[in-house]
From TrEMBL:
Domain Thiamine pyrophosphate enzyme central: 201-337
Record-stated family: Belongs to the TPP enzyme family.
Keywords, alphabetical: Thiamine pyrophosphate
Origin: domain of life: Bacteria
Domain Thiamine pyrophosphate enzyme N-terminal TPP-binding positions: 13-118
Protein name: Benzoylformate decarboxylase
Residue ranges of every copy of the Thiamine pyrophosphate enzyme TPP-binding domain listed in the record: 437-575
Pfam families tied to this protein: TPP_enzyme_C, TPP_enzyme_M, TPP_enzyme_N
Upper lineage: Bacteria, Pseudomonadati, Pseudomonadota, Betaproteobacteria, Neisseriales
PANTHER family: ACETOLACTATE SYNTHASE CATALYTIC SUBUNIT, MITOCHONDRIAL, THIAMINE PYROPHOSPHATE ENZYMES
Species for this entry: Chromobacterium sphagni
Transmembrane segments: none
Amino acid sequence: MSMDAPSGQKRWARDYVFDILSQLGIHRIFGVPGTNEIPIIDGTSYPENRVEYIECLHENIAIGAAMGSARMTGKPGVLVVHVTPGIAHSIGNLFNAWRSQAPLVILCCQQQNELVTQEPLLASNLVDLARQYTKWAHEVRTEQEFPMVLQRAFKEAMAPPNGPVFVAIPWEFTMRRIGDDDRIKGVTQISPHFTADRQAIEQAAKLLREAKNPIIVAGDAAGYAQAWPELQQMAELLGAPVLQQTFSSLANFPNNDYHWQGELPGSQSGVQQVFKDHDVAFLCGFSNQAQITVYKYSDGPLIPPHVTQVYLSNNTWDIGKNYYGEAALFGDLKATLPLINQLIGNQPSPAAAARNQKLKEFAAKRAADWEVYLREATHQNEIWAVVIADALRKEIAERKLEKQFVYVHEAVSDPAPFQYLLPFTDQAAAPISYYCVGGGSLGWSMPATLGIKLEQDGCQSIDTRFVVAATGDGSSLFYPQTWWTAQHRKLGVLYIITNNHEYHTLQMGLTQVESMYGEAEGYEWTAKTQDPEYLRIHRPKPDFVTLAKSFGGMEGEIVRHPEDVRAAVRRGIDHVLSGQAYVLDMHTVGLDQPTPDLQASNARYEKQPPLDCFHFRPETGLLSNGPGQPGNVPVIF
């Protein structure tokens, strides 16, 4: 596309933004309109800019949608927010973007430069608000530096490791006339494909090759680098189980590989149990390393001291962040892993082959256990998540949507069935086929669907024909106004509400805190009740189908029994493939039943087979988050 302005068309400083978007092939700006932003938004009205403005009804929706867009394209998501409340409303998903290394450029239109010191309406120190969760935060100081700042912002968002960048702009600067030839020459793009130091590679390969019982942890950098094949080769050479970091942002290892063991547990004792019998841990792109809720130094470190730690990451901050690394490799995963594998050797050792055989046997037993669990779930009075995941799996297979689906996960009480049953495989998907965030600030899933669905082609050779989000009822109520934008833009997305009428993970959090501190000297704290009203979402219970209909007539249905799930999922997919959003309110606790006690609520989790079949088997002990708490119930605050 030519960047030359049509004859006679004026150019303003805001057009520097569109110069960059044109060069990078970015075609959307997300936001909530405000007066200060109108000069930038107005630029989307010119067809020659080939940029559309995606209007959202809350800034945290806008930033969540921009994150979804960035995940699909691999390019920065761009949004415009409105002064202090705009960036303040965005903080939840800005935090998620920071912890998930999502490339974003956030433009915030500050009040008039000559007025800011007098503290006018909505003005504040915007940079201080955003700085903690950005790679770089800056307020433009003069009109002349605007092009330089924009070039640096986009360069930094894309430089490894990716991340959000914030730029505050006094709004009158955007309206300053510029000459026809005043343009940004380009955006510096730093190649991410650099290898680690050769000596460090040799050291890492030696430690891994000589390990008696190695383990691999695949962090988000592995998914972003599309490093599945290289990690699979290493797992085979070492005979090592592979776990993903807790609250992985992507599918960092394919779930059809028998080395796959799901995510690390969410408790101190659970993480310790994973590592305790290993002598060497390869921590590959492992960013969010302490995704637990309660920690006591007296109970020991998460990774026991006897474990030799080998790190590889494209982010120095994540290398040896919490513990000493015997080998520390700074490099791109996709470029460096083959060099390590080459030095480990072309054939697994006899010990590695024996470990691989055990892993195959454990994986076969896990599959059989999950079949039993699924059959039991189909005979319950309410809907267990495994029934929903199974219905999605079957519909994806029947419709041949394997390379055409993205699953967005915020059913935080029920991750395992979706992570295990959906086809996140090396033949059928890509790391970005799974969308979550590393931050855990609720309200990421429904906004992300907007940006994901708007981008038809994913950067990892998938497309977004079928986008489905599974979201807990509590999380769904953060930003239901997302559905207005979905209807406004005619985005066919399937929204599944896993509705238990409570904040179940917080119920578990309460139990965990009491188990850790209820008898601890100096604390001895217990809650007034184990079934607090403030953790319930009832009296009245929200009607999600009616709520969705109010945002532009979105269709949906309530599903109460497991035998009805498959047909409802089929109807939902029929709707979304024809371009109509649809909501399924899945009752994981019956509406007409008395609210069950916590023990009854946990029955489905206690019976659920662990994904980590290598470390948590009957003979080794079942995973637990603490006294009376099954480990298959994640806990987040």
